[in-house]
Design goal:
By secondary structure, the chain is an alpha/beta fold. Helix content is 31%, strand content 13%. The chain has eleven helices and twelve strands. The strands form three sheets. It has a five-stranded parallel sheet with strand order 1-5-4-2-3. The longest helix is centred in the first third of the chain and has 23 residues.
Length: 325
C-alpha cells in the first residue's frame, strides 16, 4: 500500500513537471502563434533569472530615463543610438542599422555568444528593432518579452536601479548578414510601384501618414505613394503597448486591412523601428521570413530625397487602420 502511494506520488510529480516544461520550454504555440517561441512571458523569464542561467543575457531596449527608473535584474541597456550607424556613412540618413563589425563589438561587449539565450524587452516598441537586428545578423533565436517591463512589474517581480557590470569575459558572437532580405533600402522601395506581387505598409501614426504631422528628423510631411496604413498600435493591447494581441486577433486584423499572404510585405515608419513591430507580428503568425522586408531608411530617407514623390491627405486609409494617436 505504502509503495503504491509512493509510486503514485512520484508519477504525479513527473506528470506535473512534464506539463510545466511542455508549457514553457520554447512556448511554441504561445498565444496561438506558429512561431510563439519568439515571445517569452514574464514567468518563464523569472525562472531563468532565478536559475542564474549563465547563458542568459537580458537587454533593455529603453532610453536612460526608462532604464534608471527600474529594470529587470541583470539587464543591460541597449538604447536606440547604440545600434544606429553614423548618418555620414548613410548619405546623411539617420537611424540605419550599424555595420556587422560594429554589431559584433556591441554583442561581444555584452557577453553574447552564438548560443546565448538573449531576451529583449521595452516599454513600447523598440524591442523588435533589436530582435530584427539580431536576426539580420545571424542570431535568429532572440526572444521578445511579452508585456515588457510593465508586465514584469505587474507580476510583482523586483527591479534594479543600478546597471550591472559588463561581463568580465567578452562574448564570441560574430555578426554576419544571414537574412539579407530582412533589410531593404530606398532603390527597392522606389521600384515597388511596378511590382504587383508586393504590398507596402506605413506603420506610423495616422497623422503622419496623412501628412498632418511632421516628426522631428523627417524632411517632408506625407507618405510614400501607393503605401497603405496599418498603425503599429493595432498589434498591441491598448492597456500595455508592449503586450501583443493573440494570433486570432492578429489574423482578423490582417484580413480586415487587406494583407495578402501571397505577396511580399514591405514596412516603413519614421526610422525603421515601429515598422519592425509589423514585421515581427507576421513572423509570429508564420509568414515566410524571406517575404518580410523592413525599409531601414524609412520616411527619413524617403523624405530627404526631394527627387522622390510624396502623397498626403486621407486617401487610401483603410477603415480601422489606426486612431491617429
Amino acid at each position: 500500500m505504502k509503495a503504491t502511494l509512493i509510486r503514485q506520488a512520484l508519477l504525479c510529480i513527473l506528470l506535473t513537471t512534464t506539463m510545466v516544461s511542455g508549457a514553457t520550454a520554447g512556448q511554441t504555440d504561445y498565444k496561438g502563434y506558429p512561431r510563439g517561441s519568439a515571445l517569452i512571458d514574464v514567468h518563464e523569464l523569472k525562472r531563468l533569472v532565478d536559475a542564474r542561467d549563465s547563458k542568459l543575457v537580458i537587454l533593455a531596449a529603453e532610453n536612460s530615463l526608462e532604464y534608471r527608473l527600474g529594470h529587470i535584474p541583470g539587464a543591460f541597456q541597449v538604447d536606440r543610438p547604440a545600434i544606429e550607424a553614423p548618418a555620414e556613412t548613410q548619405d546623411g540618413v539617420s537611424g540605419n542599422i550599424i555595420a556587422a563589425d560594429s554589431f559584433t563589438k556591441l554583442a561581444r561587449q555584452l557577453g553574447i555568444d552564438q548560443d546565448s539565450t538573449v531576451v529583449v524587452y521595452d516599454s513600447k516598441y523598440d524591442a523588435t528593432r533589436l530582435w530584427w537586428a539580431f536576426d539580420y545578423y545571424g542570431k535568429g533565436d532572440v526572444r521578445v518579452l511579452d508585456g515588457g517591463i510593465k508586465a514584469w512589474r505587474a507580476a510583482g517581480y523586483p527591479v534594479d536601479l543600478l546597471a550591472p557590470p559588463l561581463p568580465a569575459r567578452p562574448g564570441s558572437f560574430a555578426a554576419r548578414i544571414v537574412s539579407p532580405r530582412l533589410r531593404v533600402d530606398t532603390p527597392e522601395i522606389a521600384g515597388l510601384h511596378a511590382n504587383p506581387s508586393a504590398q507596402l505598409w506605413d506603420t506610423r501614426d495616422l497623422k503622419e501618414f496623412t501628412g498632418d504631422e511632421l516628426k522631428k528628423g523627417a524632411y517632408r510631411a506625407g507618405r510614400i505613394p501607393g503605401s497603405r496604413h496599418s498603425s503599429w498600435e493595432l498589434l498591441k493591447r491598448p492597456e500595455n503597448q508592449s503586450e501583443w494581441v493573440d494570433a486570432a486577433t492578429l489574423n482578423n486584423l490582417l484580413s480586415r486591412l487587406g494583407f495578402d499572404p501571397s505577396k511580399d510585405q514591405y514596412f516603413y515608419c519614421q526610422s525603421g523601428v515601429r515598422s519592425t513591430q509589423a514585421l515581427f507580428a507576421l513572423y509570429l503568425a508564420g509568414w515566410p521570413v524571406e517575404r518580410l522586408h523592413n525599409y531601414d531608411s524609412s520616411w527619413i530617407g524617403w523624405s530627404k530625397d526631394t527627387r522622390l514623390p510624396i502623397a498626403s491627405g486621407p486617401a487610401a486609409v483603410p477603415a480601422g487602420s489606426g486612431t491617429g494617436k
